[in-house]
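Hello forum,

I keep getting stuck at the same step: I have a sequence, I want structure tokens, and every attempt I make locally crashes halfway through. Rather than fight my setup again tonight, could one of you with a working pipeline run this one for me? It's a single chain of 518 residues.
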Amino acid sequence: MKRSNKKTAIVSAITACLALSGLALYSSAQNAVTDLTVWLPAGSPEAGPPPADWEVYKTIREKLNINLKFVVAPIGAEGETKLGALAAANDLPDLFEMRNRNQFFQFAAQKLLGNVKPIVKFMPQRNLERYKNDDLNLLATVDGTMVGLQEAQLLYKRTSLLIRQDWLDKLGLKTPTTLAEFLNVAKAFTERDPDGNGKNDTYGWGINPDWTPGGFDVVYGAYGVQGVWNLSNAANFKLNAREPNFRKATEFVNSIIDAKVVDPDWATLKTNDFRTRWKQGRYGIFAEDFCAAMCSFNYAPFDASNPTGALKTLQPPVGPDGKSSSGTFAAAGTLLVASKKAIDAGKGQAIARLLEWANSGEGYYALAFGKKGVNYNFDKNAVITLAGIDPANAYNSAGFLKFTQMRVLALNGRQRELAARYPIFKTSNGRTIVPMDFYRASFATPHTNIISTFLIKPASNQADLDRYINENRIQFQLGQKPINDTTWNQFVSGLNNLRANEYEATAKQTLITAGFLK
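Reply #2:
Ran it on my machine without issues. Output:
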């Protein structure tokens, strides 16, 4: 015990010294005000951006000498298109998050991303806590240069299927386990008026097309072809689109659509549209992030529309070979990058100051929870509480979420934080909801690990390859193109016309060299 305490004291002393030395290293830079543009996906997409008079802007200006312009970045394809347009104009934000790995490699190849290795010394505490993992740093290193700050994923395997347990009970149905059972339950949810309103307004399966492949991830997982690549071993490594089971999964998706148990608007819905519809009570089965469904501020609209509604985590359907998967995952979280333009302009230290400030203390609480005494309080054990706080001003209230849109820079995943971020609450009819129970249930379902694919650089014609696969897949799913030996063989052979075989060979060698594929 004494040895452990001594070690802890030494580490604390080293950390304190590093923090002081880091402050000294960039204190002179604080004399000049730096304009800094930061783009981040919203922590709560439905809440909108913080207002222009946000108090945090003033704090950052006075304490960090940074004129911060924060932009809530679009997510999914819309966000990638917007970043691509900014890249083409050499007008990328100073600091931003990248979620598309292909786009990350493209920007790096175009020399649009700055070397961030030199600036980590200016954020000693954050570096010590977040950027010391060599494996994660490898994911942000391109051609020997560290062009990103790759953090660990705080909570992964967050997404799984949810089912309306109240609808199962009302219709006297058993929980589905196989693909055939899923289809039968989806038909019942669509055709037998499970909400009892006398209207034909429900669908058995709600699909978010922003999630690949086309929102039907669990079907492809049931056939063992979830994700882009077959990662089972070096001998079988290839694009999953070449696998015979990819055709079988696509045929099953087509049968689901033909059965009219899926919202017919699924192919054109945006994430927010999808979420609006399940909260209205229109879907019986759907895949969702645990917090997007079960945190109090996200659950409230569903509760208002469906006060007796009951959602339950559902195991993904089992396919013909006994396989199943709720979705893909990688234990790599936020990837922050700085534009080369910003680094060349001398903004690196300002970026480091902002990130270090956000890591702990005043900055951490300001970005993650708001203002003490107004949005949160501490109990006697220094745990965040809402005791004495006006519910309308609570850090987790719908009206306040716009003030925590930058919280991704602060969150650390520690137990006290998780207890505060995902508090237990009561529904309108008095049922108790424990969001972390839904996370644990989601984590316990099978998922497909794709972290090794983060090392794969995009093909020179990646956009053409992606477009070819996605357009054909959707045409097959919708029945716009019949699925038979002739059409499917044409699809697969067409991959080589786009040099997919060269892409596969390069990707395979990358993963073998890195030790991920044997």
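The domain at 159-329+433-449 is CATH 3.40.190.10 (D-Maltodextrin-Binding Protein; domain 2). If your local run keeps crashing, start a new thread with the error log.
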